[in-house]
Specification:
This protein is of the alpha+beta class. The protein is built from six helices and eight strands, in the order E-E-H-H-H-E-E-E-H-E-H-E-E-H. An eight-stranded mixed β-sheet has the order 1-2-3-4-5-6-8-7, with helices on both faces. Strand 4 and strand 5 form a beta hairpin. Helix 1 packs across helix 3. About 30% of the residues are buried. The chain binds coenzyme A. Coenzyme A (COA) binds next to helix 2, strand 5, helix 4 and helix 5.
């Protein structure tokens, strides 16, 4: 199967029906889940019955153009985590969310920035996307840092959703980041 995306060090491929264990293990690390569930692992049953099936139907819905993609270190084929690029369900196809979740062992290696940069390029040059957005909790500086490094900026503050009120820093809310195609193209013009 052709990869969805390839960068210098990382290959993104669709998840397969047998990949539930990769997701269960990723979501079992409280550090990974800190700003998502307050550190609670995603129950394996939820991964098997809800999470993985919804990823698989997502590929069908968007004809493989968008979705949540498994990330592998190209040199070793080791699983790193996942990245997502997808419209909201039922939303316009020219607005795509960017997201990422990596194994703690692979933080601090620049993978999130490298792949996010490449996903923006794909969104704006191949997929006819007009705006890419991402949302993050106020305390999740690593995630904000990735979006800032690829040129996204805060467009508004967010209230924490009801189902995340137990997460550390929930009272601080979060931020929505965006970058438009025009802003992305502008970044690529060498400054005098
Ligand atoms: C969000 C997350 C993916 C960020 O991971 P990360 O490893 O901090 O981000 P990067 O991959 O861009 O790595 C950044 C650091 O790697 C280091 N690095 C090493 N080689 C690098 C390279 N070639 N390019 C860029 N950075 C590199 C740098 O120190 C860099 O930090 P700096 O820019 O401050 O110097 C990670 O924290 C995570 O998975 N968190 C749990 C899930 C989560 O919260 N997801 C987001 C929900 S909104």
């Amino acid at each position: 199967m052709d990869p969805y995306l390839q960068t210098d060090r990382v290959t993104l491929r669709p998840f397969g029906a047998d990949d539930a264990d990769l997701l269960v293990e990723l979501d079992s690390d409280p550090a990974v889940m800190r700003y998502l569930s307050g550190g609670e692992p995603t129950p394996p049953q939820v991964v098997h019955e809800l999470v993985l099936p919804s990823l698989l139907t997502g590929y069908e819905r968007w004809g493989g153009r968008f979705g949540v993609f498994a990330a592998y270190e190209t040199a070793t084929d080791a699983f790193l985590g996942w990245f997502l690029l997808r419209p909201e369900r039922g939303g316009p196809l020219d607005e795509a969310e960017l997201g990422y979740r990596l194994r703690q062992a692979d933080w601090g290696r620049g993978y999130a920035t490298e792949v996010s940069e490449a996903l923006l390029r794909k969104a704006f040059t191949e997929l006819d996307v007009r705006v890419v957005w991402g949302e993050t909790m106020a305390l999740n500086r690593p995630s904000q840092h990735v979006m800032e490094k690829v040129g996204m900026t805060v467009v508004r503050e967010l209230e924490t959703p009801e189902d995340m009120l137990a997460v550390e820093g929930a009272e601080l809310g979060g931020y929505r980041y965006e970058i438009t195609r025009e802003q992305w193209e502008q970044r690529r013009v060498p400054q005098p």
